[in-house]
Structure formats: C-alpha cells, structure tokens
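Bumping with the actual sequence this time:
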Amino acid sequence: MERPVSADAVDQAMQYTTADVPQLHLKRAMLACVDSVLRARDGPRSRSAAFMDMTAFRNAPLCLRDITKRIQQKQYASLSDLAEDFVTLFEYAQTHTSPTSLVFADSVVLAQEFTKALQQAAENLVQRVRKTPVAVVAKRKRREQQENKEKGRRRARNDQQEQQEEEEEE
C-alpha cells in the first residue's frame, strides 16, 4: 500500500521542474489536467467549448488550445506555471462576461475541475518520484554534475582565450 501524500508534498510537487522529474512525467500530469477540463460536461453540452479558441472574446490572452500547444512544446517549467495560465484564462472569462452568462458559470465550474485535477496530478507526481529507483536519481545527479563541470571547463577556456586575445592586442 502506498503512503498517503501530505499537503506539503503536493505543494512541493507544484514546483517540480524537469530537474526534479522526467519531462514525460511532467507533461503527462499537465495533459491530465487539460483533459479533465475538456471532459467537463453539463448534460450533453461541453463546458469547455467556449474556452477552446476564445473567438467570442476580443484580445483574449490565451485559450485551451494555446495551453495545450505550450504543453506539447514544453514551455511550462512546472505545474504552478500551468496553473497560472489557467487562472488567467478563467479570470479573463469571468471579468469579460456577465455573471448570469453560461461562459461565466462554466468558467467557475471548470476552475473547480482544474483545481481538483491539479491536486490529483501533483499527488501522482509525488508518487512517481517516490517510486523512482535510487539508481536513476543517482545517475541523474551524476549527469547534472558532469554537465556543470563541462560548463566550468568551457567558461575557463573562454576566459583563457580572452586573456590571450588581450595579451596579443597589447
């Protein structure tokens, strides 16, 4: 049986980046959040339809299609970055529509749905990190250390070349 996930662990998972977990895990968690929002229905009507391209709104900062594209292009560094865009999307819809409109009501429901999905995605990430074998974590750290050493060597070479160029100029 798996240990329960604490609220602190979920908060930490919101800040996980590709340095902490593999990109694939992060991408899957993000896509699960989007999928949860897309599946929200009010009877036969999709609640998310108005948010797919936001053509009903002028100057909308983004839409669900943009968010999905950003996930695919790996533009989000963490779940909290994704959450910021969803907050922007729903706040924009609530600010620019009447409180009695369907879009306003849908934005409230979808925001709640997204929050639940985000919580679940963060919990799943925590579980995946816990299951990551120690050897994988050690290998990842060694690779990171090796990359840092290489960066240092390149920096030293560049400094040395700059010194030589300065000496030649004198």
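The tokens above came from a reply further down the thread. The CA atoms of residues 103 and 151 lie 50 Å apart.
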